[in-house]
Structure formats: structure tokens, C-alpha cells
Amino acid sequence: MSANKSSEETTTTTTTTTTTNSSTSAAASEADAETSDVTAVDSAAVEAEERAELQQFIGELQEKIDSKRQLRLQNANFELPGDAYFARLDSSLKKNTAFVKKLKLFTATQLETLLRELSALNLSKYISEICAALAEAKLKMTDVPAVVTLASKLHCTYADFDTQFLEAWQKALNIKATEKISNPSKLRVDLRLFAELVSSGVIQMKPGLAQLGMVLVQLIAQDKDDHSNFSIILSFCRHCGEEYAGLVPQKMQQLATKYNIEVPKSDFLSADKQLNLRTMLKGYFKALCKHVLTEQAALMNMTKIIRRTMECKGEISQEKREKCELMQASFDKLLASAQSLSELLGEPLPELTKESECCNPGTVIDNMLDSATFGTLDPWGDEEARAFYTDLPDLRQFLPNFSAPKVDLETLEEPSELTEEAIDANIDAEMDMDDPPSTASDTALEKEQEEQATPGTPNADQAASSSATCTVPCDKKMGSALMELGRQQQQQQQQQQQQQQQQDQQQLSQTQQLAQSQNQQLRKQFDVFLQNLFNCVNKELIDSAAIEFLLNYNTKHQRKKLTRTIFSVQRTRLDILPYLSRFVAIVHMVNTDVAADLLELLRKEFKWHIRKKNQLNIESKLKIVRFIGELVKFGLFKKSDALGCLKMLLRDFIHHHIEMACAFVEVSGVYLYNCRDSRLLMNVFLDQMLRMKTATAMDSRHAAQIESVYYLVKPPESAKRELTPRPPMHEYIRHLIFEELCKQNVERCIKMLRRINWHDPEISSYAIKCLSKAYLLRFPLIRCLADLVSGLSSYQPRAVTIVIDNVFEDIRAGLEIHSPKMSQRRIAMAKYLGEMYNYKLVESTHILNTLYSIISLGVTLDQSVVSPLDPPESLFRLKLACMLLDTCGPYFTSQVTRKKLDYFLVFFQHYYWFKKSHPVFSKSENTSDLFPILVDHTYRDCLSGVRPKLKLYKNLEQAKEAIDHLQEQLYPQLKANNAQDASLATISEISELDEGVTDDSGSSNDQRERQAAGGSEADQMNDWTEYEAEPAAPPPPPEKSKEDLEFEQMYEKMTSDSYQERLKEPPLKATNKDIPVPMMARLQKKSYDQILSNNAPQISKGAAAAVATTTTTTATDVANSLPAATASCSEAPATESGKGSGSGAVPFVLMLRGNKGGKQQFKSFVAPSDSQLAINLKLQEQKTREEKEKVKRLTLNITERIEEEDYQESLLPLQQRNFTQSYYQKPNKHKFKHQKGAPDADLIFH
What we know:
Elements: H1 2-76, H2 83-87, H3 93-104, H4 111-120, H5 127-136, H6 144-157, H7 161-172, H8 184-200, H9 205-222, H10 230-245, H11 250-258, H12 271-313, H13 318-345, H14 364-372, H15 383-390, H16 420-432, H17 443-453, H18 459-467, H19 476-533, H20 539-552, H21 556-567, H22 577-588, H23 593-612, H24 618-633, H25 639-651, H26 656-673, H27 679-695, H28 700-713, H29 728-740, H30 746-754, H31 761-772, H32 782-792, H33 797-816, H34 823-838, H35 844-856, H36 876-888, H37 895-916, H38 933-946, H39 956-970, H40 973-976, H41 1004-1012, H42 1014-1029, H43 1042-1064, H44 1079-1082, H45 1088-1093, H46 1101-1105, H47 1107-1112, H48 1115-1120, H49 1124-1127, E1 1145-1153, E2 1160-1168, H50 1172-1211, H51 1241-1245
Antiparallel strand pairs: 1-2
Helix pairs in contact: 3-5, 4-6, 5-7, 6-8, 8-9, 8-10, 10-13, 12-13, 12-27, 16-25, 20-22, 21-23, 22-24, 23-24, 24-26, 25-26, 25-27, 26-28, 27-28, 29-31, 30-32, 31-33, 32-34, 33-34, 34-36, 35-36, 35-37, 36-38, 37-39
């Protein structure tokens, strides 16, 4: 049953697969069918369009041929009217002359009118005038068919019209070979009209063809050089080429051949005559092609000259610019016409050079500027800088009542191209013109406005009241009563007016006081705002400050005060200049007077410094040019003006001008160099700066500044290496190992790496490669990588084995290639190997072999021979061995491994002392004074960590004795055959004690296995002994050649000259290392325990002198600075200061710095007399005492000699005495005389 089910399932699966495959193939066939259908539809549409175009051309050509044939028949077969016909027509002079005048101004729209007049007028006496008028008329191409129709009518009416018309055309088409054509446009129309008249039968065929051929020959003969008549010939070929030369456009001819359609041909001329004209036109076309190539070569030469000029000067003169544009336009026109003639004649154009692509339609200079940009230019460098200089807040949203248009900084740019000529003219104009005085005061205008706003005088009311007085006559009583009443009313009105005036004055004074108080308060607030403006040191603060100013303080007076404040920024606050420039740019979008006034002040200040030419106020000068540079980047200061400032500095490129130019280029050089319109000029100025630096003997500081700003703007081009993209799996492996791996997720990384396809050779090899590169990780993560490899060892043992082999090979390669560049890598790999041992991936045998390789591979113990793998001055192998020991040395816990490590430490100490005692790190009297103290500390810390109780050797002799003792103990055979010294070369990289299978756990089974393998170990020992007992014979000394002898002579001469020069140098003054001990520390009281024990240290003068050693050097330095002979003497007597305190101790005082306030503290301690500290103190005291005695002896000898010379001179007579300057007299120096005028910096500082 199960078999049947499985067979049924298989059948079903096969059927499903077949159905799927068939459906897939069907879908593919449907897609191919759809594609083929679309292609067929497109080809059918193209074919339809081509057929329609061909049919249209053939139809137009056939219609033209038929109309010409019918017109020729009409003009050939006609009957002239008789005299009776002309007798009925009008022969008046006025109408006939008017008709002739109309013919001189003939247009196609007048044809019907002229035909009606022609049928009504008798023009028999005016035929010659009519022919001359038609031949001299200025016609257009559209007027030609109408003229042919009119001429046909005249030809059929008047008998002598054709002969006189031919004569008129002969006069009009009379072309001289030596004269150029004065009006080519008229001749182009006349030639077509004459050809149309001949083909229409108006002019007889034979004389007409002769005249037409003569004209064409003259045109072609005149056009051999400049081809100025090319447009005339091309027009003739377009309109009359089919009739006279059988010319059909090449495209139509190809389509007719493609679709097998016959193109109609004119029967006007035979094929032989057409061939003659066609041959002449093809010859002209060949000459035209040569002319096109010549013009192209001239244009290319011109473009090369312009490109070279732009690269050298950065600009092009206006004359060259116009000439280049003219040549470009003429070449474009010539090329287009040549292509049209090539299409008509069916002849191919010659291949133009590839550089002609830049000479195609378009301006050559624009193309050059586009090509000079070197791709997309970025003036800012990063988005943050772009946002700072371009993204300014739109303050119209904060000023709702503001209706002025927004000022866009980008619209304020200068013309598209900057030229050095314009900049020079601008500089000369500015330098010749004096700075005008400031006219920014508007107090007079404000006063006038206030006077206009004052109210009128109160006398107006009085005048109005007086004018309204009663004038009506009345009697005296009524008059007096009315007068009295009026007087009373007038007094009341005056009193009311006085009271009103007093109230108005009180209100006015109150409002004035209130306004004054408000103004004072506002002025104080604005002063505080200006003070806080210089604290805006980021983008947000300066934007908020600009908004606050425009909302609260935007008045004309305060804008002027703001401008003066910004201009007078402190010269040392260069950090605030970009933010102040941004502030001005934001305000400029609303009010332009702040930026305009600031730019004017900066420009005047800059020109004043240039004209002054003093060497003072360098900080102010740098502030000005840096401010200008920042404003340039905001678009406020024009680029042309900025480059003009740089040009002024380059004119007198000395002293402060160099620093000003460098500061300007540092601020705005990158921006100007990466802008399209200023790039070329900036490049020229930068090259000029570099040339002047090379050609001028300037200060090294200035030369360094110029190079710095030059390479800041134009960094040297480096070959960009194209990075090949890694596969996604490789990126994932790198992500796990180099990014995700840490102490917390080692297990997760193990799980992830287990899931990759280890059977794929490419993936597995890349994973092994990444696991082998521990130097690409951070140093603390190397242990995590070893943990990761340890976790994978149970699942991928082969891969882990390859990783371990790669680590050993990397360490070995580092030993064989001595390169300081690999130091960090070698340290990391040593750390990685040690961590592998800690995770039980390698055995102790491999670690010890590596350690022995570190101190033996390529090492020579002969100090006269320099090893390239381990130079004497290189101490890196000590660091490498210390790193490996620090990592895994504490884990050598079993008895066997500890013993092996103890043996290695003996050889390691010997290697250390061999390095330390080398002449490179020692002097004749005191060894180890040049040995790096950090290496010494690393060595001692390493040994104290591995073996805390290990007794360290004190010199090289003790290390050699220990090696000899170890060899006698392990290999007694060497004692009998002592032909070779104990050295590092006698130690094999494979330890003799590692023959048995070892385990670092130190178990009893391990020991038994080692005992069982004892016989093989002995055999190995014997083999090693016999091998080492036969030293190789020393090679014979090579014979010295002639070059070697000359080299030795030159070397001896060089060393002697160097020695003589060093004798002339003044001796170096020795530094004082002694520090006196305070009296409080010397007179320190004893404690009760010290009095009872009588062994307390007594601080004496000798011990106080030891403070210098304890403060300047450490105990380790003292131990390192001892000679070998002195250091080995452990029974040296105590110093004098230690006699009272016992024979075995020497007291010292240690100077310490306190925790609070740095107050010095003193602590006493006791050192044994055989310690390195005490022995070194004794040696120093002895050396100091001997040196003082030597100096004293020399001083006494000099004094005695001087006294003897003075005595001998006193015995001589006065005439023989030498009155020269005494040795002790000071030489007379000339008094420095101050110069008048400006100080000379070179005389003062050099």
C-alpha cells in the first residue's frame, strides 16, 4: 500500500511539474508574441509614415513638373494679338508710367491688379522699361511664381518682350570675376527667377542656358577660397536642382528604392546636360568640404588658445571673446549648409574630429566654463556649512505688517563671469578716489519734520473773532452796550484760551517727559542687547537675536548704531565673525542699509591699511579680511570686490600683506574656488601666491602659511581606489565579528556563525580570514574573539586549526620582517595567541616555541654585527615577549610547564641584559642611562606578574652564569666540549622537554606519560648536543677592494672633521640635580620607639644630598644606571651618613607632593647598604668630589699662569709692553642709534 501511495504521489508531482513547465513556457511564448506584435505595430507605423512622406514628395514634384510643362507649352504655342487689339487699349502716359512704377515694387499680392491693368493698357512703347523694372525689382522667394506668371502674360502679348527681357537679365546678371558680389540676397532670388523663366519658356532656352551656365561658373570660380557664394548655389540647388541637374534628396531616393516607387523626372533637359551641371556641383562640394575642415581647424586652434589663456590668466578679453563667438556662428552656419548640400547631391560629408563636438552649436566659452568646473562643484563641503550660510530664516512670518519685497541674496550676484581686466580697472578707480566723509546724519531732516508737525499760532482765533465783529450801524447807546458786551466776551475768551494753553503745555510736557523716559529705557535695553550680541556663539542664538532686533529695535538710528557696533568688534574675537555675518545677512533680507554701511566701512578700512603700508595692527588687519571673507560666503560682499582685495594684497606681497592674503584665502578661498564664476581667477591668484613664495626669499613662517592655504583650497589629487562591493554574506560575517562581538553576546555570535554554510569554500575561507585578523578589533575584544573561536572549535575543528596556523604564521612573518608599521598588529596577534592558550586551543609547547623564537630568531650576540631583523636600538621584541607572558604566563600552573617557563625566563633575562648593555644604550662610565624606563618597567612588571618571588639578575654576567649553570645541569656533555659559548643560539625552538604528550593541568597521568617518554627525550638531548657541539668554521675575511679602501679613507676623514667641529662647540652646561632638604626635615625629632631601639635613621647632610637622586630618579633608574662591576658588589660599606645608624642601613629622605595645595612633604626611609640606591649615591658623591677637585686644580693652574705672565710683562721696558685689551675687560659695544621714520623690522629682528 505504501509503495502504491508513493508511486501515486510521484505521478501527481510529475504531472504538476509538467503542468507548471507547460504554463511557464506558454507564458514565455505569449510574452514573446506580445513583444513581436508591438515591434510589428511600430514597424508598420514607421512604414506608413515613410510612405506618406514619400507620396507627398512625389505628388508635389509631379505637380510642379506638370505645371512647368503646361506653362512651356503655353509660352511656345501662342498667337500674338493684332493692331486692332492694341488700338482699343489705353495708351495714356500717366497710366503706363504708373504701371511701370508698380512693377519696380512688385509683390505677389499685386498680381491680380497688375494683370487687370495689363489687359487694359497698351504697353508697346514701354516694353524696355517693363523688362528693366522686372529685372531690377527687389523680390522675395515667394514672389517668384507671380513674376513668372506676369512675364508669361507679357511674353504672349508683346512680340519683342523675350529679346528685351533677355537683354535686361544679361545686364542684371553680369558678374565680373575680380569683383565680389555686392548684394548676395538679391542675386539668390534673381538666379532662381531667371532659371524659372528659362524653364517656363519665357526666355529662349539656348541663350538662357548659356547665361545661366556663365553665372554659375563665375560664382563657383569666385568661391574657391572663402565660399561666400555658397548660399546662392545652395538656393539654386534646392529650388531648381531637379530640373537642371536631376537632384533628388537622398532620403527620398532611399525611400523610393526601399518601397520600389519611381520618382518622377523632369523632361526639360536631357540627362547629358544634367550630368554636366551635377559634375560641376560635386566638384564645388569637394572644395566646400575642404573649407569646412579648414574652418574647423581654425576654430579648434582658437579654442585651444582661449583655453590656455583661461588656465593661465583665468579670464578672456572682450575682443577674443567676440572673435571666437563670430567664428563659432559662421562655422555652425557653414556646417548646416554643407549638410544640406550633401543631402541634395547624395555625397557624404568628411568625418570631423572628435574635439569638434565642443564646437557644435553653442558658445565655446560657456562650454569651456562648463568643462572647467571639473564636475559638480560644492562650495561648502558639508551640509552643515551649507545650512549655516544659505538657510536663513524668512522673517516675514515674524513681521506681519511688513510689505516690502523679500531680498534674495542669490539675485545680488555680479555678472556671470569675472575678468581680471575689470578687477584691475575697479582697483585703480578705488585707489585713485579719496574716501568720502560720512554723510549718515539725518538730524536736519528730523528737525524739519518736527517743525512741520507743530500746530499753528493762537492768533488765528483772534483774527477770526475780530473779523466777525459787528459792523452794522446803530446809535451810540446800542453801540456802547454792544461794545461793552463784546469787550467782556473777548476777555472771557482770552481767559479760556490762556487756560487751554496752560493745559496743553502741561500735557505736552508730560508726554515729552514720558517719551524721554521711554526713550531712555529703550536706549538702555538696546545697549544691553548690543552687549549680549557678542555672546551669541551658535546658530540658534544669533537667529533669535536677529528676530529680536527686527521686532523691537528696527529704527534708522539704532540700525546705524548696530552697524558701528558690529564693525568695532574686538580684534581678537575672530570666532564671532561668522555669526555676526549671519546676523547681518538676516537683517539684510528686510533692511539693506545695515549691510551696505558695514561693507562701506570694511572697504574703507581695508584700503586705508593698504595705503598706510605700516607693520602695525596685524590683528586688526586680519579681522578686516576675515570679516570680508565671511560676508563673501553670505553673498553680501561681491566676489569681484573680494577678488579685487586679494589682487591688491598680491601687488605688494610682503610682510603683513602675506598674512592678510593667507587669512582671506583660509576663510573664503574654498568657496571662491568652487564657484563657477570665480574659480578660474581664484586658481590664477593661488598659483601666483605659490610662485611668489618660491621666487621670493621670505620668512619660513610665511612660506608655511602660503603652502597651508594653497593645499587647503587645492588639495593634492590622490588616486581614488575603487572599492569592490563585498557579497552580502561577507558583509554579514564582518558585521558579526568586527561590530557585534562583545563580552555579552559571544554566545549569540557563535550561534550565528554556526549557521553559515561552512561547506562553501568561499564563505568558509572568508570566515577563517576574518577570525584570523585580531588586529582589526579593539584591544579589549581580542579575548572575546578567542572565546568565539573556542566555541566554534567543537563544531568546526578544521576551520579553527587553520585560524591557529594563520596566527602562528602572522607572528612568524612579523619576526622575519622588521617593520615599525606592523608593531600594533604584532602586539595584537601576540595577545590573541596568549588568549588562545587560555582557552585551551593551543598547548604550552607552542607558546614556549613562540617565546624562544621571539628572543632567538635573527638575533646575533656579536655587538659588532647588526642584525636586520633585530637591530640593537629596537626593543620591540621585549615588548612582544612581555605581552605574551602577561597574557598566558600566569596560567602555566602544572609542575612541568612551570619548570619549562622557569628555563625560558633565564634566557629571557639574558636577552634583556644583552639589549640593555649594548653600547647604543650605554656610555663609557655609566651603563643603562639611555635605556627607556618604560621598557624597563614593562619587563619588571611582567616578571613580577609571572614569578613574583623570582630573583632578577643584576647584570649580563649573572645571566650568562645562570645559562652556563643551566646547561651544566641539563646537558653535562657541553662541559666536556666547551667549544661554543652559551648563547641564545644554543636554544632550539622545539623544547627538549616537550617530547611527551603534555597537558597543562598537571595531573598524575601526565607525569606518567612523561616518565615513559624519558628514553626518547634522552635521545633527543644527545642529538641536540652533538649538533651544537660542532660549530661551523668561521668564513675567511673578505679581501678589501679599491672602493672599500677609498670608502674607509673618506670615512676616517669625515669622522676627524666632525670631531674637530665638535671641539669648537661650547660645552653643554650640566643640569643641577641636587635639591636642598629643608631644615625642618633635617631636624626631625625622634619618636619614643626610635630612642629605645637606637636604630632609628638619622638624617644627616649626606642623606639630605640623596634627596636629589630620590626626587629626580626612581629606584629602578638607580639600579639601571650602575656598572656591572659595582652592582655585583653587595658588600659595599655604608655611606658616612649611615655610620651612626648601623653598618647595614643608609637613611634617605623622600620628597612628596601633598594632596591639598601642592605642599611638599618629606618622609624618611632606610635602604640597605648593598642596595642599588645606596651604591649609586656613593658613586655620585665620589664622581662629584673628583670633578670638583679637577676643576679646582685647573683653576689654580690658570691663576698661577696669569700671575706669571703679568710678572714677566712687568719686567719688560715700557716700549715693549703690550697694551692690548685685557682678558677681563668687557669689549666696547657700539651704541645703537635709532633711525628716523618707520622702524626697519629686518634690522630689529634679524
